[in-house]
Amino acid sequence: MRNMSNKTDLVGKSPRATIKVKSRSLIIIGVVLIILAVIPQIASDYIIYVATIAMLYAVLAGSYDLTTGYTGPLTFCHGAFYGVGAYTSALLTLKAGFPFWVAFPISGIMVFFFGMIVGYPALRLKGHYFAVTTFFFAHFIYLVILNSQGLTNGPLGLRNISPPESILGISFKSLQSSYYLIFVFGIAAVVFLYFLVNSGIGKILVSIRENDELAEAIGINTSFYKVLAFSIGAGIAGLTGSLFAHFFRLLHPTTFAWMTSEMVVIMAIVGGLGTLFGPIIGAGVVTLILELMRFAPELRFIIWSVALIAVLIIEPGGLMGIAGRIRGGKK
Amino acid sequence: MVFQQIINGIIIGSSYSLVALGLNLIWSITDIPDFSQGGIYIIAAYTGYFAVKLANVPFPVAILLGMCAGAAIAFCFERFLYRRWTGKGRIQLLSAIALFFLLANLAILMWTAKAKFFPTYLPGSVSLFGFMVSYQRIVVLAVSAILFVLVYLFIQRTKIGKAIRAASQDREAAEVVGINMSTVYSMVFMIGGALSGTAAVLISPLYSVFPTMGELPLLKSLVVVVLGGFGSVAGVLVGGIGLGLLESLGAVYISAAYQHGFAFFILIIVLLFFPRGLFGKV
Fold it and tell me: Labelling B196: which of A191, A324, B147, B167 has CA 20 to 30 A away?
């Protein structure tokens, strides 16, 4: 028989079942939140814009970690769910006249069920077959978005997407207020993911990652939990896509081509899979450096693919793995 | 019209089969769905293009150069990267995708996204059943057929070929009886790279050379591997030509926009109902 691939190979030396926020980490998180909260007051529009992208990517990478880092199967279609969410929300407001506040949850729920429909058959596949299928699926979604011209306007893209309607007297037309909306969403999503991975469900997911046959043997319905984690990850990506659509107010199919899915994977690996905060940090680092390298756009992806290979060689656990190593070395 | 589509389908299908044959060998022996072959395909196509355009070499030499470039790159990837992660399948897969990403973007950086066109190396065409088929298309078919026979003979008749077959059946047992797995791994990657490189140079004069050209042949070939099943040369050939035919006929009779989406449906159906492929022996 061929070897089953070891699913903990990407999670650093000693995969922990749960992450607990310690007091020192709390201070760091607090400082980061304060910086993010004051950015719109002091920084230029450009920096606000970059920070918004970083936050959207952070939620994407965090939700990707739920599927791949905590549950195990390597997927390459997170960008596709992001795209489906973005287009669903944009079309609901543009064509059906729904307000954003209705379209936003609907797009999340729709992508959640969509993830379930895709995940249920696909997750029956073992190992690399599943990974290859998700890669294909991402390409297929791109083709659908590109070719359904009647609905998505094809390669011309969707324009004039409305900003979220004002609520409680807050208007979301300005850059700053949109930023705060995404900021609040980002915190909510990360808090949700944090409690999810530290709950009983999170422990079940980790047990599936560590040894899914054993998990099955002790009575865990592994396929149910795998599909659940996959769909929740997809649903959060859908919500993020919806915010993206109404923040930029412009959608184009190439935004959701396979490169996007690959960037999410790179962010998650650079940060460190299976740690939740790792992928979020990874998203911040990658977005920042992508923006700093705006002068040489062709070079950016080259550097990131080299960086991914370097991370895999040096420490497959990513930045969190390196941090763990340093901390371990001090003892 | 139908005849023309059938010819086109067989030609594009034979290029899928060539790439898929290499991928199949690699995947069945080392457990790596080697996405980097898509990048090798791009680099080999440019190698052939520049050899013809700048050095003015004859087309067969360009094919040989593409073949060598492919084999050399694949050899290096295996020896210096994949090998360090033996038994860590997810890292190997990720690095393969990273390498594909890297080569595709290197091509954009070095040669810009603009498509380049091979000069016609063999003008003229022949009449087949009342339809004109250009010589260049016939060359694609002939070279693919020759390569298939050569690879088949190599695997069936030579000593290293026997070692490859043994390794694909049972890796541990092959090592126990003294087969040098290091050589087998290098060999299958070199064969894979050479086949991808050849397919790329062979098919480019019919279309064009551009930095994103590797993606679709790669995806299609992965489907062909799944379709044909591990370790089946005949399965790869039938799967590749079948997919090529389905795409070119489907583009006319079903939908041209989803020409490149059919493979996805086939993949899903095959994986769900025939998890070992249509011709799988393993």
Answer: B167
